[in-house]
Amino acid sequence: MKKLALFLLFFLFFLVRNPKPVLSLSPDGLSLLSLKSAVDQPAAQSVFADWNENDTTPCRWSGISCMNITGYPDPRVVGIAVSGKNLRGYIPSELGTLIYLRRLNLHNNNFYGSIPEQLFNATSLHSLFLYGNNLSGSLPPSICDLPRLQNLDLSNNSLSGSLPENLKNCKQLQRLILAQNKFSGEIPDGIWPELDNLFQLDLSSNEFNGSIPSNIGELKSLSGTLNLSYNHLSGKLPKSLGDLPVTVSFDLRNNNLSGEIPETGSFANQGPTAFLNNPLLCGFPLQKSCKNSNISPSGSQNSGPNSGESLKKGLSPGLIILISAADAAGVALIGLLIIYIYWKKKDSSNGCSCTGKGKFGHNDKGKLCSLYSCACINGFRSEDSELEDQEKGERSGKGEGELVAIDKGFSFELDELLRASAYVLGKSGLGIVYKVVLGNGVPVAVRRLGDGGEQRYKEFAAEVQAIGKVKHPNVVKLRAYYWAPDEKLLISDFISNGNLANAMRGRNGQPSPSLSWSTRLKIAKGAARGLAYLHECSPRKFVHGDIKPSNILLDNEFQPYISDFGLNRLINITGNNPSSSGGFIGGLPYKSIQTERTNNYRAPEARVPGNRPTQKWDVYSFGVVLLELLTGKSPELSPTTSTSTEIPDLVRWVRKGFEEENPLSDMVDPLLLQEVHAKKEVLAVFHVALACTEGDPEVRPRMKTVSENLERIGT
């Protein structure tokens, strides 16, 4: 009896000291604790501080997502997101017991060792992000025992071996990113026809050899970039790659590929950077001719070393005289043709015209001008006109000053311009901008660049003439300029409805009317056409250098206009030193905020002092503008104010959202959520924007490709 009493007393004491059962944590929670144990201290203590073994459920732990599953009383773990925490350790095999785990995000840590095969017992996995670690070993063949796997990113590790053939069983796979590893061997050719849903493939920076599988061209869902760069691939380019969607950009740099680059299908849309550092490749777009020693100059096959000699012997003197006479007649005919064309150009008041059909240019009849069918743009002034302007400039440089019309339709005198009603629209480091209403009631925008030296007039005039030659319906048109030793003016079209920054964020702090999805897509397409034209068709293939919403003007129909291109060089010529980059050529004002905010529209390489602007800078900036149109959020963050619509790194925020597979509704502007029918279009534009904002400028598409991709959306 005494022993029983002592036992009961001890039991009561135990209950008081341990009110919760020791094994109260769910099986999912116990599996997660294996991850905590696998991570080296002390990082585990800080990152997993709330992973408590005495909890009944892990669903409140940081980085853990749960969901109610039919047939189970408690929620089950469906997501693990512990990325970028500098954790060092191994991936425990116990995670494979989480049978409802859908997303595993352990990227950008220091996990080492191999990927455990038992991990793939978690058959609900559809997203596995392990990139940016120190993982080694081969890719487990059991990886494609996962029937729902959609996203596999193992890049930037030390994985090795060959690709398993059974990758073809991953029929739901959408992203396969294995870049920056040590994979070797040939790329298997039996995989790709089975991956109907794959839209991103990146095998770059590995040690693959052999030829490119021809059936990669059967990846009909591929978009963005096909990246096979920095490997040891050899052989000819399979023509079947041309069967890939035209939205696909190739990156085949730094291999040992050889032969002629085909010009059919998707090949025709690639730039030279896609094929660089393949010494044996030739043809368009490398501008490296393909020589064939077996073909004679006449185009027939050589029969032997004496064939040329026998041909000479076979020609009679009479035939030689006849051929010589025909040659002379041909030369004379070509000379007459050149003279005829010269006088036709001289007589034409509109310069040269183009009638090809395309996307980026217009002639006076409204016909479209393709990128490559036009050597010049209708409305360009003749050399005689430019010479006349330079003669006027000689007078201006001596102090007279004169208004020079670039557009023949602009016939106003300087006195009339100065007497007209004028309103100050804005002031920035790029000068003061006025709205001036001319005598006929037509408004123009006049930018005053201020005074400056008179020594560089010819350089200034040449630069303005180049800007004035840009004729495109989505680019602000420069009409005239004025130069004098103490005054420089630029006169351009006035765009009446402000700019995209005003439309997105409101003017003077007041919210603007909401922009519908169709309007935003219209703005994106038009701005892309204008910028692509500047890059591809303009006289100097301009780099804008400062693409942002305040430099995209809007008319009353929300038609967009690219403004402010070429201004920085003009400012440098006139001797001014701009302190900011706000303002515009034409349009309503938008306060310059560069002194207050970091310009987060700029590409990463643009923030390095001394780097010269490139067209790929513009592509990145345009991608950020697209993200702002999609999300309604600004990438610029004021140090004094912070609102829910300002995100300092919009690109990283969106990429993280896609990696963690957040609902699209979490990223899209709430004003667009009612337009359910536009979901596919919104997602497609997201993909275009993310391609534009790639960190590596060589991987970003050209603006021509960006514009073509946008044109296909919603049509």
From TrEMBL:
PROSITE patterns, A to Z: PROTEIN_KINASE_DOM, PROTEIN_KINASE_ST
Transmembrane annotation, as ranges: 319-343
Residue ranges occupied by any Protein kinase domain in the UniProt entry: 419-713
UniProt entry keywords in alphabetical sequence: ATP-binding, Glycoprotein, Kinase, Leucine-rich repeat, Membrane, Nucleotide-binding, Phosphoprotein, Receptor, Repeat, Signal, Transferase, Transmembrane, Transmembrane helix
Bilayer disposition of the protein: Single-pass type I membrane protein
Compartment annotation: Membrane
Glycoprotein recorded as keyword: yes
Protein name per UniProt: Leucine-rich repeat protein kinase family protein
Annotated source species: Theobroma cacao
Taxonomic path: Eukaryota, Viridiplantae, Streptophyta, Embryophyta, Tracheophyta
